[in-house]
């Protein structure tokens, strides 16, 4: 059980142990999907031209992260968030979070939250988590 006020601030790399990409790999993965993009599944308020423009700008830039790119293209941020969410969903695989795979620090945290070998420690924990990551792996693991 965590009995002292504790804040975890999670950023890039916090979920790489469960096969989520780091910034530049995420950009590369999004650019690779350009040819087989989501054109057939795009919401109606996005045009094919907007999608082509987005991929051209992202792939021709030297951006280390999708955040950096979206900061330079605020007009395209809604489209970017949609593409990013679709890409992140493609990495989700609940089986990578549990045995026989290594859940890394998630396993350690879960066991630190336990109280008296049951989940009562979750309710009385002094833990807060602030995350800047796009994936939901920690939430899924703890749930």
Q: Would you mind describing this structure in some detail?
A:
The protein is built from seven helices and two strands. With 143 residues, the protein is mainly α. The chain has helices at residues 23-32, 48-60, 66-72, 77-91, 105-113, 120-123, 137-142, and strands at residues 6-10, 127-131. The protein folds into two domains: 6-16 and 95-142, no CATH class; 21-92, no CATH class. The longest helix is centred in the middle third of the chain and has 15 residues, at 77-91. A two-stranded parallel sheet has the order 1-2. 45% of the residues lie in helices and 7% in strands. The mean pLDDT is 86. It is elongated and about 60 Å long.
Count of DSSP-assigned helices? 7
- H and E string: EHHHHHHEH
Shape: elongated
Strand content: 5-15%
Considering the chains and any ligands shown, give keywords for the structure.
mainly alpha; 2 domains; two-stranded parallel sheet; 7 helices; 2 strands
Give a brief description:
With 143 residues, the protein is mainly α. The protein has helices at 23-32, 48-60, 66-72, 77-91, 105-113, 120-123, 137-142, and strands at 6-10, 127-131. The longest helix is centred in the middle third of the chain and has 15 residues, at 77-91.
């Amino acid at each position: 059980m965590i009995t002292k006020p504790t804040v975890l601030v999670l950023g890039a790399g916090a979920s790489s142990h469960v096969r989520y990409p780091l910034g530049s790999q995420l950009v590369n993965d999004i650019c690779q999907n350009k040819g087989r993009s989501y054109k057939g599944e795009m919401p109606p308020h996005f045009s094919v031209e907007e999608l082509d423009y987005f991929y051209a700008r992202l792939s021709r830039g030297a951006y280390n992260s999708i955040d950096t790119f979206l900061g330079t293209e605020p007009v395209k941020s809604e489209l970017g968030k949609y593409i990013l969410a679709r890409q992140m969903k493609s990495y989700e695989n609940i089986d990578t979070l549990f045995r026989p795979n290594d859940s890394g620090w998630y396993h350690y945290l879960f066991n630190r939250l336990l109280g008296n070998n049951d989940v009562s420690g979750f309710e009385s924990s002094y833990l807060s988590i602030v995350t800047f990551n796009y994936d939901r792996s920690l939430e899924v693991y703890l749930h």
